[in-house]
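During the reporting period the student researcher (J.K.) took over the structure-prediction task from the postdoctoral fellow and processed the backlog of single-chain submissions. One of the processed entries is reproduced below for the supervisory committee.
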Amino acid sequence: MNTMWPYIPHLLATPVPRYTSFPTAAEFAEGLEPADYQTELAGLSGTVSLYVHIPFCDKICWYCGCNTGAANKKQRLASYLDALHREIALVSNYLPDGVRIGRIAFGGGSPNAIAPVDFVRLFDAIILAFKLDNPVISMELDPRSLTEEWVPVLKSIGASRASLGVQTFSPHCQVAIGRVQPLCMIDRTTRWLRQAGITSLNYDLMYGLPGQTAGDVQDSLTLARDLGADRLAVFGYAHVPHLIPRQRRIDDRGLPDVEQRFQMAELAHRYCTDRGMRPIGFDHFAQAADPLAIAAENEQVRRNFQGFTDDPSDAVIGLGASSISSLPNMLVQNDKNSGRYRMQLSQGLLPVALGVRRSAQDQQRAKVIEDVLCAGRAKPGLTLLEAAWPRLAPFIEAGVCDIAEEELVIGPHGVPYARGIAATFDPYRQPSARRFSSAV
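J.K. obtained the following structure tokens:
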């Protein structure tokens, strides 16, 4: 699939969300009460998923926009884990008896920022509180702090999927973003994870980093392939120091410009697809035998706060400070402040801080946006098409998407414009919004 993407600057000019939810977190507001969330939990049925947030890292990377802090105080970690245990018990009590857990994802921060023994206790609490249905278990991991003692832990809980924050193998780029991790460290971690039974291993890679060249991107892709990654998530770095103060440590004079970023994204897409990986959405790739590639083949890819996924559930319950629960009728975010999070739980309250109710129209638009991003096509219906038309027309005129028999289809050259196309169905977006990342 050695194709060239057309570079159309004006279609990339407006920052747009990544649409891991709709409405997006930008629409979250105060107003939802713990009782509202409790009622929504009580109305769930069937199989749902859990996301468990550990907002700590041994070392804080300068680029990172995650809600995370340094794991350098034992009492701080212990207090947080105590609160998390309380939330697990509280949430499980509100779920109907018939609800089962089909997936458990541990993210952060870095789940391996806590001690393995504390992690085992956390997992045991989940087993005791919830009814599990042979869940798929996945973890985000930081190779800089992963130790070999995690191997039996991951094996014992039955983890089959893991994601490593590799970002780049280029030493000068690692120094520029405050994340130094030699190749030998990634190689060692990968071998440990295979020993632990991980069969689907993802590497997160980034382009658009300070001083990064196309050669650096290709070298990282080649090393990832040589090390046997089953999946790659190739993200464009979003430099927004006005929103993420720690990014001020990054020298932005060496950042690639928009056209260079575009070329890096195209290089990654061409490199992966030319070597047999299946493209998933606009920035994920998977080997043919990986569950995500199989889901794509069967048109079953979804999008949630973990990115592109084969998780079929319409309900993801978030546990932990700042975690977001994506439920059919509402999106609910826990308090980001760990102190307030602990205080609410000490009072027996669900730590709800922000959220939004999802109207029937929101849910309709969410389906269209998800279909656009996951499948490259959608049937919005005439009403939504007419509402989107003023912003959608430039993409159609440029030939990156088309409408046939009321179906919107993104062509093979339209992948880098997918987020922009999806945003045309988002009535909350304003053209001047600057709180989102570049379209590529």
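The committee noted the following: The chain has a mean pLDDT of 94.
J.K. will present the remaining backlog at the next meeting.
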